[in-house]
Fold this sequence. Notes:
Layout: E1 5-9, H1 13-25, E2 29-33, H2 36-46, E3 50-54, H3 62-72, E4 77-82, H4 87-95, E5 100-103, H5 108-141, H6 149-163, E6 168-172, H7 179-188, E7 197-201, H8 207-215, E8 216-217, E9 229-230, H9 232-235, E10 240-244, H10 251-263, E11 265-267, E12 274-276, E13 280-285, H11 289-294, H12 300-306, E14 309-312, H13 323-338, E15 344-345, H14 347-355, H15 361-375, E16 380-381, H16 388-391, E17 415-416, H17 424-438, H18 443-449, H19 454-463, H20 472-484, E18 490-493, E19 499-502, E20 507-508
Amino acid sequence: MSKNKILVVDDEKLISWSLAASLKKDGYEVDTAASGSEALQKFETFKPDLVMLDICLPDVNGLELLKRFKAANEDLYVIMITAYANADSAVQALQDGAEDYFGKPFNLEAVKHVVERAFEKRRLKKEVDYFRNELRRKSDQEKMVGNSPKMIEVFKMIKICADADAKTVLITGESGTGKELVAKAIHYHSARADAPFIEVNCASIPENLLENELFGHEKGAYTDASRRQKGVFELAEGGSVFLDEIGDMPYPMQAKILKATETKRFRRLGGQEDVEANVRIITATHQDLPKMVKEGKFRGDLFFRLNVMNICLPKLRERKEDIESLVQYFIESLNEEYGRSVTNASPETLEYLTRYDWPGNVRELRNCIERLMMLEQGKVLTPEFLSPEIRQCRLPVGESEAGGVISSDFAGEHIVLPSTGISLEELEKMLIQLALKKSGGNQSKAAKFLKTSRDTLRYRMKKFGLSDSGKEGEVEGMEAGAEGGNGGAAMASGGNGGSAVAGEGLRWV
């Protein structure tokens, strides 16, 4: 681990030597300079983290040197030292960016304490900057994707709320539509971006703890309150408080939130004085708040106060044109998370994903892609590992994946004819094989499946050279052979009497 570097700039050699020797014992890497010109040179080569700077140097004023140091490195910590301490020079030094100020003679232990405090402050600042950058990076990674007209309107509203510093914003929409992402986008694209963003899920905190979580408490407010504790509204000073699932907030608590939103003031639990709250309040819910107001489950005055700026997120099934972009975005982000190199989803997979209605919205789509990424071994996501509910989605009458035509007479089964065509006799033969397999070789049952008589079935079995036994082995053999044939079809038993056919043959979906 590298040592913290300190440059001591003083024209008195005894001062420089004593400071350097003492600081080196404490584990710092120290260099000295006796003039302004030497200090500038060593500032470039030594690259100190902290400078101890005498105001009175033989060739330059220390305050001027302070300005040059801070202009070159605004994160540099500077402690001013002089034998001619006075209030004016001290104030000027602090205004120009000095961390602290000492007059000669000084207490060496006190100086060492200030140096330790300066480096601790520097360490904490680095940590804060790191975590703030991490939050911004995650916010950028969790970006919202969509080019549909409805999402463009959402993006416009986000910009308006961020630019105008709207004090209350209500985000509505079904679960999984991305309400938290909208809240973060408003915060991180506004002038409040450098201040905290704190989220509270109103549905997950018990009623008796929610007030304490939001507003904090005074010492002695309850049995275990041994000291004052700040709540979210204080901790988020200058930033944003995101109250998720506001519709689940207990009715008595709603009155206190109303006061905080209207007056920008609140009172800690057990407190006697109001505390100012400089925060933006962003709320979100999947519930129908106007309906809850009519039913007496949500305060009407609070709803009208929160609903000044409303962003309603569309359901994914209402913007299916965004699914392909979302899929590609999730593939790229999950590649980084799992160390994969998947390139895209196959056209057939995208067809399935587009047909599905996504009751869980974007969250469900992401989970689906994550599942495919974990199970798929190749670089293209295929339909093989799609969940049964997605694979069972059927094309509406008149549509075809292969560009064929679906007969309206079989709308319930959704039969798709391939564009390359298929042999009618081969189709009839395979349907008989499938019926025999499904009936376990029972010809009477097979005839019922095909809506024909047993005699007609036996006649056609004889025509196609099928044995009366209807053995499953023969059926499976024919199916295997059909897979490799030109224009053939491989059929597998499907739900509700339907079938899924692979290859270029007839398709039931």
